[in-house]
Amino acid sequence: MLRALRSELSLFAFGLAAALTIGWSQGYLKLAVAVYILGYLIRHLYYCWCFLAWSHGQKNELPEGNGLWTEIFHQLRLRQRRYRRRKRQLAKILKRFRQATEALPDAAVVLGDGLEIEWFNKAAAHLLGFYPKDKGLRITSLIRHPDFVNYLEHAKFGQTITIQAPSREDIQLEVRVVPYLPDHYLLLAQDVTQIRMLERQRRDFVAHASHELRTPITVIKGYLETLMDSEEASLSPTFRPVLKRMDDQLKRLQYLIDDLLYLSRLETSQNKPSAMQPVDMEQLLADIIDELDQLKEPHAPIRLQLESQKHLLGNEQELRSAFTNLIVNAVKYTPATGAITVRWHTSRQGGYLEVADTGPGIPAEHLPRLTERFYRVPGAELLNPTGTGLGLAIVKHVLNRHQGRLEVTSQIGQGSTFRCCFPAERVVQPKTAAAAP
Ligand code: ADP
C-alpha cells in the first residue's frame, strides 16, 4: 500500500516538475501548473468513472491504471476472483445438496413462515401430487386431511401422523413436520403402505389363529373335565397328576388366547377408545379388589388409598382390564405375608393410578422390556405359572389409547410400583363430568 502511495506521489512530483520546467521556459508558469493539475484531476475522475461503470456491471474489466490506481484495481480484481471462486464452490455444494434431496425416496417439502410451500423434491411431487405451480400455496390447501390440519393447528411437531396420500388413496403416508428455523418448517413424508399392510396381516393372522384355536381348546377342556370328574380317573393314582398338569396347561393356553384376542381387538379398533365416559375410580378399583378377594385364594392384603374423588375420562372396560392386570400381577408376585397398595391421586398435571407391592422386585435391566409381548422376567413362571407375558402389553396399549403412559420403579427384595399416568384433560370433577366429544 505504501509502495502504491509512493509511486503516486512520485508520479505527481515528476509531472509537476515537468509542467514547471516547460511553463518557466515558455514564460507561462501559472498556466502550465493549472493545465497540469486539471489533467491530474481528469485522470482521477476517469479512473473513478471506470470503477463506477465496472461496479454497476456496465464494464466487464477494469483498466490497468497507473500510480495508485494500479494497486486499487489489482486489489479489486483479486477480490472479484476470490468471490467468483467461492460462488462457484457454493453453487457446486447447492447442486450436490439438491441432487441428494432429489434422490431421497421420502418426500421433503420446505415450508415458509405462513406454511406456504417454498421448495419440494421429486418424491414430494410423486407422493403428494405437487406441481411446480404449487410453490407459494399454503400446504393445507393441498393436503386437506383433517388429521393433518389438526396436527399443524396444534403444532404437534416431533410426532408423526399417518394419512392417505392426497392424490392417491392407496398410499399411506407417515408425515412429520420439523421446525428448523424460526417460522420455517421441513415436512417429511414416507410411504408406509407396505409396512402398514404387513402389520395388518400380522394382526389379522394372530386374531384369526387365536379365534380358530378357541373351539378345539373348549372341546378338549370339556373332555378333560369329564375325565377328571369321572370315577375311573379318580381311581387311578398315576392318572390324576397328569390330568391336573394337562388342565393347568390348557388354562394357560386359554389365558394366552384370551389375551391375544383382546390385544388384537385393541389394535384393530380405532385409535380412540369407542366409549368414553367419566369413570368413577373409587367404584372401579373397589370392584376389582372385591372380585379378587372373592376368589378365596390366599393373597397379600390389598389396601385401597383414594386421595382424590375425581373421575377419569375413558373407556371403563379397557381401564378395568388394565388395572386388573396390574393388581392381579401384584397379587401373583407378592407373598401372602406382603402388602399391596392401590392408590388413586390427582394433581394439576394429571391423574395417577399406582399399584405398589412388597414383592420380590424386578432387576433394573428388565424394566424397559416389561411391556413387550411375551416378555417375562426369568423365574416369573415359578410365582405365576399361568402367566402369559401379555398382561403388561395390554396395559401399555390401553394407556396409549388414553394418552397415558406406564412408569415402573422397582427395588430387588423391596417391591415394585406400577404407575399409570393420565393427562390433566382426562381428569374430571364428578359433578361436572361430561361425556368426551
Ligand atoms: P405375566 O402374565 O407373565 O405376569 P405380564 O406382562 O403381566 O405377564 O408381566 C410381564 C413380566 O413382568 C412378568 O412375567 C413378571 O416377570 C414381571 N412382573 C409384572 N408385574 C410384577 C410385579 N408386581 N412384581 C414382580 N414382577 C412383575
What does this structure look like?
By secondary structure, this protein is of the alpha+beta class. The protein has 4 domains: 2-97, no CATH class; 104-191, Beta-Lactamase (2-Layer Sandwich); 195-268, Signal transduction histidine kinase, dimerisation/phosphotransfer (DHp) domain (Helix Hairpins, Orthogonal Bundle); 277-428, Heat Shock Protein 90 (2-Layer Sandwich), CATH 3.30.565. Helices cover 51% and strands 18% of the residues. The protein contains 12 helices and 13 strands. It has helices spanning 2-26, 29-55, 68-103, 122-128, 146-153, 193-229, 231-235, 239-268, 281-294, 316-333, 380-383, 391-401, and strands spanning 107-111, 117-120, 161-164, 172-181, 184-191, 277-279, 302-306, 311-314, 340-347, 350-357, 405-411, 415-423, 427-428. The strands form 3 sheets. The chain has a 5-stranded antiparallel β-sheet with strand order 2-1-5-4-3, with helices on both faces. The longest helix has 37 residues, at 193-229. Adenosine-5'-diphosphate (ADP) is lined by residues 325, 329-330, 333, 357, 359-360, 362, 370, 375-377, 380, 384, 387-393, 416.
